[in-house]
Structures are given as C-alpha cells and as structure tokens.
Amino acid sequence: AAWRSSPRHFSPFQNGLTGLAILLCLIASVFSKESGLLFIPLIIWMELLIFKGQNHKGQAVRLGAVTLRQLIWGSCGLGLLTLLFLLPPYLAPENFYNRDFTLTERVLTESRVMFYYLRLFFLPSLSELALYHDDFLISQGLLQPYTTLLSVAGLIGITVATFLVRKKSPLWLFAWGWFLISHALESTVFSLELVHEHRNYFATLGFLVLLPCLLLRATPKIRPFAFLVTGAFVALCGFITWQRATIWSDPLTHATFEAETHPMSDRANLELGFIYSKIFYQTKDIRYVGLAKQRLQKARVSYRADNSAWYFLILLAYQQNETPDPALVREFEQRLREHPITPATINVLNTFSLCQFMQECRMPHHEAIKLFAAALENPNITPKTRAELNQITGIFIAQTTPDLEKAETFLNEALRLHEDAEAHILLMPVLRLLGKFDLAREHLERARQLDSKNAHVFDIERELKRTAKAEQENQDKVSSPKVPSGSTLHP
After folding, report:
1. What pLDDT, on the 0 to 100 scale, is given for residue 30?
2. pLDDT tens column, 351-364
3. Phi, psi of 445 (to 5 degrees)
4. Distances in Å between the alpha carbon of 122 and those of 12, 89, 128, 188, 247?
5. Which distant-in-sequence residues (6+ apart) come within 8 Å of 275 by Cβ?
6. Beta bridge mates, 144
C-alpha cells in the first residue's frame, strides 16, 4: 500500500522488484495456508476501492493500451470462470461424509456464523468466546431456526446498503467487502468445520481501518463522545483479553470454563473428562473417576456428539481394572457403523489399536475386531477414510495376531483405495516378516517416487536397512547347516 500510494516516481527496475517481492510473499502465504489465496482478491479490492486504479495525481494508471481498472475487471472475469470450473468437485456429497452436516446445511448455517463473528468483534463477551464451537446450532432450513432467514436477509441488506453509499462513503463498502472476502474460503461451501474464532482475526482488519477514519471525520460536537466510546470499547477488549489469558494459563481451569459455558459442546466435555482421567491415572485419586465419568456422560448427550466419549469411557474402565459395560461397547460398535467417521473417530480407533497392543486395554480380540469391522461397514465414508480404516485394522492384526497374510490384505486394500508414500511404508514390516523382501523393496521404491517433498526419506532409508538386514539373517539361517541335537560343531 505504501508503494502504491507513494508520490515518488519509481524506475521500471524498482517497480519490477517490488512486484516480484509481492508475488513471492503471495506464494509463501499460499504454501503456509490455503487461505493465503485470498490475498489476491483482497489486493484487487484495495485497488478498486482505495486507489481506484489511479496514481497520486488522480490519473488512470495505464499498462500499455489498457488501464489498470480494465485489466483488473478482465482478471476478475477470468478468475470467476476459473472458479466455476474448479469448484464442482468440492461440492460433491462425499466431501461431507465425515461431517455431521450437508452442503446445504453448511451454507445456511454460515449465514448465522457470519453474524456471530460480527458479534464477537463489536460486542465481545467472555462467555461467547471459546476454543470449541461444536455446539453451534446447525441450520436445517431457512426457518430452522428462523434466525437463518434473518441472517441471509441481513447479509444481503448490508451488502446492498454499503454498495449504495459507495460514492459518498466508500470505506463502508471496503470494510464490509474485506470482511466477506476474508471469510470466502472458510465460511462458505467447503467441508471445513463450521466455526473457529481465528478465522475472524484478519477479516476484521477492514473495520479497524474504518474506525479511525470515522473518528477523524466526526463533527466537533460528537467527536469527544466518539473518542470516549471508542476508548471504552478498546478497554473492554483489553479486559476480556486479560481474562481469557488468565483462564487459559491453567489447563484445568480452562477446560472447566469451556465445559461450563458450553455445556452442550462434545469437545469441551471431552477435554475436561480427559483431564480428570489423566489426573486419576497420575494420582489414583478415585474422586477424579467420578468427575471424569460425569463429563464423559455429558459428552455422550451433547449436541451431535462424536464417538470419542464412548471410547474414553471404555478406556476409563480399563484404567480402573474393570470390564467395560457390554451395553456401552455394543453402542460404540453401532455408532461406528452408522455415525459419520470423523477425523476424531479415526484418531480414537488408532489410539484404541495402540491401547490393545500395549495391553492397557484388554478387550477380547474378537470383540475388538468387531469395532474395526463396524467402522469399515459404515456406508458413508470416503475412499481415503476407508483406506485409513484398513490401515489401522491391518496394523492391529499384525501387532496382535500371527495372521500376517490377513494384515497384508487390509494394508493392500488401503493402498488400492488411496496410494501415498506412507501407505507403502506401513506395509513394510508385514512384508519383511513374511519374507517377501523383493516385494518390500518394490514398495519402498514406489514410496520414494511418491515422496515428492522428501518427507519420508528417513523412514524409507530405515526400512531399506531393516529389509536388507532381515534378508541377510534369513539367508544365513537357510545356509547354516543344521546340527543334530547333542553334537558339536567344530571349526
């Protein structure tokens, strides 16, 4: 912005260097996070609303035969066509299989989420601010709840109003457009989680630009009052920030606050229950068992609860050297078969597999297998999720049974559904134990080809060494003469 608004005359070399720096920063932001792409429309928005395609003398900036504004509008049209071409795969129903909402429900809900974000900025409240927002009511229609219709109408109304006053007060349109553009990726049609406070931080910069401009333009009569209100607002924000920092400084205090202010949040109750169970595991104080169970039971009846509470109740029983309630295990199995398999569920099953292997969980093998089978029977999972489930199941079988061929079958199925370097590497220990050394090296070579970013170089080299060592040991074992019992082998 400083370069663009400077009255100085820059040489073509200086302009080119500045343009290159901007381009490199854009590329770096995109590789840091996908939302870095939004800097492109935000720069365009700033150019259209603030600089208006003109230099400091008010003359149209020209790039050869066309003006900068003409180039921008042409680029916008091309960008829109590109978006229409790239967008359809992201709208496919299977992209929402691991969520507890559909595309339509997400779009309708986000209209209310936008006003929630506005309230967080203009009317901050400590009870509204939270780490988890999985208790946010999902809109199932324009009138379910009715505030959905009001929110849609409100978004349209504000957009129209700011557009109509754009000539007299362009900064209103700039601030509102900045807010909408900043939420364009994470608060629209993509199958992300519904609400996260950090998405609002950059989006509110437009309002922060607007505020001092409004104060400077205020009439002398109302300017003292405007400064007083602004000061009180800043003080309120600082006070709430201090309160949040104090609460977040202690994990137990933070988790308790989250669970009490968001009693229908599955994650908030799980977090507090997990902390109580961790304290019990460390101190063996039986009081924390009851507290943990209470929170985990609340998580079970929370708004659109995930599957984690069932697993943690089973784990808590094993930590007490008790047998989990069979009804609880059956309910967990049923939910794995019917409830969306979210990333949290994948993590739970992975943890359960390790718990069984370490013998901290002592569920009979056939009962444990039923849980993995139930998840694989779930009809509403993507190929990638099914691949992850096959990997977890295959590794579990390899770790807990001698049936390595069965483990290989599951891991090969995972590769068929979703091939990546890690999937090939996970297959290595099984192939090595089965003596399939040539096949193991083929998979490692394929893993090397897929590892374009060299993220698994260490793992591949380690598995190559282990495979070579195992093959050598196998050859030595085969080539060594068998000595009858009781005889002596002489040099």
Report:
1. 87
2. 999 999 999 999 99
3. -65, -40
4. 44, 36, 12, 22, 22
5. 251, 252, 255
6. 141
